[in-house]
Amino acid sequence: MKVYLNKLVTIEFSDIKDSYSGFLLDFNEDWVLLRNNPVDYVIDGFVILRNKNIKHIIYDENSQFNEKVIRLKKIKFTNDSIIPLSSLENILSYLTNKYGIFQVATKRSSSVYLGRLSEIDENEFFIDFLNINGVFDGEISFKNKKIRVIEFETDYINSLKTYSDSLLF
To answer: What's the predicted TM-score (pTM) here?
Structure first.
């Protein structure tokens, strides 16, 4: 995976339909950090993927062309700070402290869940759930090992966070 650092790649999984594209910023045996490229020449936030059941990492002519276009747009594709990929607890604690809100998804889930970390132990964690109307709406729990995707700093997440913050004033 080291050969793909700072390159625009697409990661496909053997057990998840969705693929994820982005600039590979960091990885370890458990997690992969991408500067998210959801479509064409758009960069939108970051995605952290559980490094499990990766089927293919694609870096082809199309990826290389898109990478050149994005670089010409002078879009920043690195992260200012190092995301601690050492454990799920460190990742979620860091994201809550630095960004306030993150989004998680499981392998089987057709839904994603936004929120901020409220509690975590070795088996499960709880988030203060931010609903689609930008209102905190109770706690939701997740089994740690079920989390496959974590996103943050996307336009969608930041928009709901901004709205939620406006309700405080």
So the answer is: 0.94
